[in-house]
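DM from R.C. (forwarded with permission)

"hey, sorry to bug you on a friday — could you get me a structure for this? deadline for the figure draft is monday and I only need the backbone to look sensible"
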Amino acid sequence: MPVHLLDMEEKDISDPQASLYKLFDQNNIHLTTANETIEAMGATSFLQKQLEVDPYSSLLYIERCSFDNGQGVEFAEIYYRADRYKYHIQLES
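My reply, with the result:
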């Protein structure tokens, strides 16, 4: 996330209830589009410890780039335990 886009103070990020999306809203940043990729992977030893799973357990790796009218504002790499993740999407034409 380009920090120069956000007007924030230490208290805005040190609070356990802090919200990046609230900061976006306060700084007139509105996510208009995003690209997201989801893929399966085996847990590395580091992720095994972090997510408390058995060696090489199945994980879902998600990479997301979010934009405000074409300007990149957020990049996220997220790891989910496959045994605790449910994906739902509603498609319309």
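R.C.: lifesaver. The chain has a mean pLDDT of 89.
me: no worries. Residues 48 and 93 are 40 Å apart (CA to CA).
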